[in-house]
Amino acid sequence: MTAHDHRLDRRRFLGLAGGAGLALGMGPLAGCGRPASPQDLGPPVAAPTYRPRTGLPEPDIAGTSDGVIPSSYFSYPADPVRTVSATPGDGRPVTILTETFSSIPPAVDRNSVWSNLNARLGSPLQIQIVPQSDFGVKYATTVAGDALPDMFFASPTPDFPRTPELMAARALDLSDHLAGDAILDYPNLANIPTACWDVGRFDGRIYGLPSPRGAVSSGIVYRRDDLLRARGITEEPQSFADFRALCAEVTDPRSSTWALTSPALQFIRNMLDIPNFWRWDGSAMQSWWTDPGQEQALDAARGLFADGFVNPDAFTASASPKTWFGTGKAYFTADAFTAWPSYYASYGDTEGFAVEGYEIPAFDGGGKGTLWLSFPSFGFSAISQDAADRVEALLRIADYLAAPFGSVEYLAAKYGVEGPDFAIKDGNIVPTKSGTAAAQLGLKYLVDAPQVNFVPGDADAARACDRLLRELVPRATANDAVYLYSRTAADRFAQSQTRFTALETDIMQGRKPVSAWREEADAWWKRYGRQMSEELGQAYVDAGRG
Amino acid sequence: MTTTATRVEPAAETTNTAGPGRRRKSSRLNRPGVPESLLKLVILGFAVLVVVVPFLGIVSTSLSSKEHLDAEGGFVLWPDAVNLEAYRSVLSGGVVTRALVVSVGVTVVGTLLSLLVTSMLAYALSRPGSFGSRPALLVVLLSLLFSPGLLPVYLTVRGLGLIDTFAALVLPVLVSGFNVIVLRSFFMGIPAEVLESARVDGAGDWQTFTRIVAPLSKAVLAVVGLFYGVGYWNAFFGALIYLNDQSRWPLTLVLRTYVLNNTQLSAGDLSAGAESLPAQPALQMAMLLVSIVPILIVYPFLQRHFTKGVITGAVKG
Predict the structure, then answer these.
(1) Which CATH class name applies to B1-20+83-317?
(2) Residue B278, pLDDT score
(3) Which of A123, A74, A17 is nearest to A396 (CA)?
C-alpha cells in the first residue's frame, strides 16, 4: 500500500465521516439533528409567484401554461430579445461549485464563452467544475472543510444525505427575496414554474434555485424509424407480446444487430402502471419496489435478454447504447426526451436517419400504459451564508443565467460569442468545435431556464417530439413523494436503491430467480420501507397534497 | 606431429552420482520436445493476443473516422484510414496540454522529493542507536496498519493553507511507510565494514549517505522511484479534492472526465451541421493514449536498473 492510494472503499468511510464532519462544521448546531422545527421558523412561506415572461419570440408550437409540456421551436429566433438591462454583478468574483457530465472546458484565459460571460455579468465567475461521478466526494470534503463557495450545487448525494441540516446551517434562507411576489424583482427566475421551486424548500423556507426539467427528462423508448420502414414495419406494438415479437423480428446477431440496447425495464414497468417511486393511494404511500407488478416486469425483461433480443454487452461497463442505436446496431433504446435532438446532431447526416418514440401500450393490450413523469427540477443550488452581504447581486446573476430561450442572455450563457463560438445558419445555432467544448461550464446545473423542445435543423423531428409529449404526458404519473423529506429515506434510500438495482441486474441476466425480488422487497419493507412510507405519508399530508 | 586422441567423457558421466549401474540422462532430454514447444507457443501467443489486441483496438479506434466507427459500432481493430481529428481535438484548447505539463511537473518534483526524504528517513532508521529511531519506526509501522481517513488529511492540508496549490499533490503523500521499510531493510543489509571504513576515513553521516550508501543503492532507489513516479502520475483523487482550479488538474483527472463522463453532448450543445467533434469513442481512446505515452517512454530507461540486482558488495569476503 502506498500513501498515494485513496481507495474507493474510503468513500463509505467518508460518507460516515462526512456526517461527523458536518457536525463539526455546523458548529453550535452539532448534535441537534434537525436544527429547527417548522414552528420555530414560522409558517411556511408562499411559493415564488410564477409569471411567464412576455415579449419573447413566439414558439412554433406553444407549450402548456403550467410549463409541463414545453414550447417547441423549429429555429432559433432571428432577433433575440434582451431580458436583462443592467449588469447584474457587483464586480467581485463569484465562486461556484457545480458538476458536469461532459469533459472539462478550457480555462477562462482560453475560453471565450467563459470570459464573455464574465464581462456581461460584471463579476468574474470562478467555477469549480467537478465530474458528476466524483461530485459527492468533492461536495462532502468542501462542506467538512467549511469551504463552501458563494453558490453551489446542493442536491443530496449518496455520500451526503443530510441536505436539510446543511441548508439550515450553511445556506442562505432566500425566502425574503423569492417568496411570493418578491421574486418579481428577478423576472427570469419568476419565469420558472412553481413546481420546480419545491426542490429547494426545507422546513417551509426557500433555500434553493432550481434547474427546470420536467416532462422532457422523462424516459421513453426510441425506435429507428428508418430501419423499421426499410423492413416494412410501420405499426406500433399494442401490448408487450407485440413488442416482444417485434424485437424477435429485427434481431440479427450475425450482423451484430439487436433489437434493444437494454431490457427496457422502465418501459415494461410503464406498461404495468407500476408506481413512479411512490404513489399515494389515499391513505398511505405505496412503494414501487413492493408493487405486485414488479415480478411480472422483471420476468418479461429477463425473457427479452434470455432470448437474445438485447445487446449482450448491455450490462457491461463498456455499454454504449447511444452509439449502438445511432449506428443502427440496435433498433430500440431507452432514453429521455432530451436525447431527441442529440441523436439528430450526432447521426443526422446518416442518410434517411429518423427516430421516433413509442407510445406505451398496456402490458396485456387493450389500453395504454403510463409514462413516469420526471422530476420538475434537476436538483438545486444554494447560496452560502458567507455571501449574505451580496445576495441581491448573486440572485441577479442567477436571474441572468435563467434567461429563457430566445434571449440574448440565453445565447451568451449556453453558446458564447457569435463568431468564435457559434454561428446562426438558417435559424440554427451551429457551435464551432472550440465553442462546443468551451460552453461546458456546468452552469445549467446551478440554475437554468425552463426547457424547450428545440431540434435545430429538423422541424419534423421537433413536431414528432411534441406530439409524443402531448400523447404521453396527460396520462403520466408523477412521483407523489417528490421533494418530500423523510429522515429514513435520506439515510437509507440510496443504499436501498443500490441493492435493488443490483438485484434487477442479477434477475435480468438470469443469475437469480424472479422470486428473489419478493424476498428482498419484503425484507426491505420491514426494515426501512414501512418507516419511509409513514414519514413520507405524513410529509405529504403536511404539505397539503393529501 | 603427434596427435592425441582423447576420449572425452560426457560431462554428465563424470559427475554421475547415481552409482556405477546408472547412466545420467542425456542432455537431449533437457531440450523441450516439439509438442511441448508448440503448447508453450500457443499459450504464450494467446497471452500476447489478449494483451495486444485490446491495445491495438484502442490505437485503431483513436485513429478512425466517425463514419468507420459508426459502421463498426464504436470500436475498430484496424482503421480504414488514419484520421488525426481526435488527437487534434484533444490537444487543442489547451486543457490536455496544460494537464500534461502539470502531471510531468508533479511527477518529477514529487518523485525526487519523495526519494530524498524516504531514503534519508530509511537510512536514519537503519542505523542502530539513532536518536528517536524507535518511536519514528513505530509511527512508520502504524501508518501501514491504518489510515486516519480522508477528512482528517483534508482538514490538515486545509489548515496548512495548501488548498488549491501543487504542494497539496505532493506533501500529503510524500513518504510511504512501505517504501521506508523496503529501503531500511536494504540499508541494513549494507555491510557494516563499508560504513566503518567511511567513518575511519573521516566521513560524517551525510557524506556516508551521499557518497557510499546512495551509490550502492541505485537499484533499489530506482525501484522505489518507479513506485513513487507511477503513483504520482496515476494519482487523481488528491487533485479532485484539493484543487479548485481546473487549470491545475493533472492529466489523469482530465482523462477521467473524458472516459467516465461519456455522456454525449446534449441538445443545447450541438446542432445538425455543427462543426462536430470527433466521435466520442475516438476522443476517449486518444485521451487514453496521450495519458500513457509518457510512462511508456520513461519506463525502458528505468528497466535496466532493475536487472542489476541487489548490492554485490564492496567488501569481498
Answers:
(1) mainly alpha
(2) 72
(3) A123
